[in-house]
Specification:
Helix content: 25-40%
Structural class: alpha/beta
Radius of gyration: 24 Å
Number of helices: 10
Number of strands: 13
Strand content: 15-25%
Strand order of the largest sheet: 5-6-7-3-8-9
Length: 328
């Protein structure tokens, strides 16, 4: 469990984090969201004692990070995959971490296998692609078989197979009862991974709620109808006290009614429907609505958008997660 209480960080006159209080609980994947400049990275650095807070506290299973005897066995983190020593092999990077934290050397081979880097274990990290570097960073987080894991942009540079793998890995770890805290700008991926959300803006807490409640509370849900008997349907809806909004192409949008209610109403009046579908906002739409007033950096389009770049190549496919044997 991670507990933040009144966490605050000033950089000169700028308040990067402003009295943040929340709890990251075990057994679930908690997503950490916020616009650029919201204070996410600073918050995660303070959790790991990489930055000292101006005020407030962070506790990892009831202790400050600095008071943990063997921190990698309590909490593993991926904040910057580039932090690895480029002149060392993947194996030796992890071996140094293992020796410093009294972790058996046998664990190095285990986590390299988990992340799919066994074939390149003896290659120097400086020659790794972005995706391979991410996998090595994830391996370092898993090294101590910790009960708490923090990931900052874990899918950065991964190909579709790698994204699918890390998503399932985080879900599997949470199902084992571990505490999983993940920050990402990829809303579509966060929607598939996280169960709970912590949302901040300009250093302040904006939301601490379930994924489902966050989307419901910050977006509009409605039912879309399409019929060749449009005028008759409008009369029936009006008589039932329902307001329909025309959205083009003969489509109607109705708030305040379920698909079941509208389907039964149409059947009762023998109205043919070509479409009857519930429409719910995406996490991205709900996030944009929630954080509209907390965005610090606004970009302005000056011409046609450039095509997206292809994802970087990654290492070999990784097998499923296997925790370290406690007797190792």
């Amino acid at each position: 469990m991670i507990e933040l209480e009144g966490l605050t960080k000033h950089f000169g006159t700028k308040v990067a984090v402003d009295r943040l209080s929340f709890t990251v609980r075990p057994g679930t994947v908690t997503g950490f969201l916020g616009p650029n400049g919201a204070g996410k990275s600073t918050t995660m650095r303070m959790m790991l004692d990489l930055d000292n807070p101006t005020s407030g506290t962070v506790r990892i299973d009831g202790k400050h990070y600095r008071d943990l005897d063997e921190p990698l066995k309590y909490i593993g983190a991926l904040l910057d995959a580039k932090a690895m020593h480029g002149g060392r092999s993947a194996y030796n990077n992890l071996l140094c971490l293992a020796q410093a934290n009294r972790i058996p050397a046998s664990r190095v081979a285990e986590v390299l296998d988990v992340v799919g880097l066994t074939a390149v274990a003896r290659k120097k990290a400086k020659g790794f692609s972005l995706g391979m570097g991410q996998r090595l960073g994830i391996a370092s987080a898993l090294l101590g078989d910790p009960e708490i894991l923090m990931f900052d942009e874990p899918v950065n540079g991964l190909d579709p197979e790698g994204i699918h793998w890390i998503r399932n890995l985080m879900k599997t770890l949470a199902a084992e009862g571990r505490t999983i805290f993940v920050s990402s700008h990829l809303m579509s991926e966060m929607a598939l991974t996280a169960d709970h959300l912590i949302v901040i803006g300009q250093g302040r807490l904006l939301a601490d709620t379930s994924m489902a409640d966050f989307i419901q509370e910050n977006s509009r849900s409605y039912v879309r109808l399409r019929t060749p008997q449009r005028e008759r349907l409008l009369d029936v809806l009006h008589a039932a006290g329902l307001i329909a909004v025309e959205s083009g192409n003969g489509t109607l949008e109705i708030d305040g009614a379920s698909t079941e209610q509208l389907g039964e109403l149409a059947a009762e009046h023998r109205i043919v429907l070509h479409e009857l579908s519930a429409q719910r906002a995406s996490l991205e739409e709900a996030f944009m609505q929630m954080t509209a007033g907390a965005v610090e950096y606004h970009a302005h389009a000056t011409g046609p958008a450039a095509p997206p770049s292809a994802p970087a190549a990654t290492g070999t496919a990784a097998p499923q997660w296997a925790p370290r044997s406690k007797g190792a």
